[in-house]
Amino acid sequence: MNKEYYAHETAIIDEGAQIGSGTKIWHFSHVMDSAQMGKNCILGQNVFVGNKVKLGNNVKVQNNVSVYEGVICEDDVFLGPSMVFTNVINPRSSVERKDEFKTTLVKRGATIGANATIICGVTLGEYCMVGAGAVVTKDVKAFALVTGVPAKQTGWVSRSGEILGDDLTCPKTGEKYSLKNGKLKLIENEE
Questions:
Q1: 23 φ, ψ to 5°?
Q2: What are the φ and ψ backbone dihedral angles of 98, each rounded to 5 degrees?
Q3: How far apart, in whole angstroms, are the C-alpha atoms of residue 102 and residue 87?
Q4: Which of 21, 79, 118, 156 is the most buried (most CB within 10 A)?
Q5: According to the UniProt entry, where is the signal peptide (predicted)?
Q6: pTM of the model
């Protein structure tokens, strides 16, 4: 069988899973049959991708992450080592709630740090950054930096992940941002 992605011999890829070209799936990972992954994704060691999960292009999933049904990650998302998604708001062992899974949307370019927990039903805005160990219980704005338990906004970050100062200019790229009505936006160069 000729495939356009790489899967380590210990990985389990269920028949029907859609996996884009250039994707790499490493040791002891499992991709369920109705999962969809774009091009050039990387699944680290011991990653689980559940049914109906959608991962865009260039999504990086680090070791020991389970991406459960209900999670959608757009392009260029980074999921840090051992971070956690939930998909039921009030789980009980004796009560089946598979018809109550809540959707969690991780928008383009977002980063979730190591050991962070994302409570189901939230949207993480474009290029936001969730600090290591944070517990996200509500939506996160685009470009926002959130940290702590529960996670609270502690700053703004650029598309390249640099913390922005008062001038809202990325110290690495020089990109400029504007803040209006509590929302940060990239100022597109007009040439």
A1: -75, 145
A2: -65, -20
A3: 5
A4: 79
A5: none
A6: 0.95
Q: Which residue has the tokens 């002891």?
A: 28
Residues 84 and 7: their CA atoms lie apart, in Å, by 23
**Residue carrying the six token digits 């998604």:** 85
* Cα–Cα nearest to 41, from 29, 52, 51, 33: 29
Q: Tokens 């865009």 identify what position? A: 56
Within 10 Å of residue 110's Cβ, how many Cβ atoms? 25
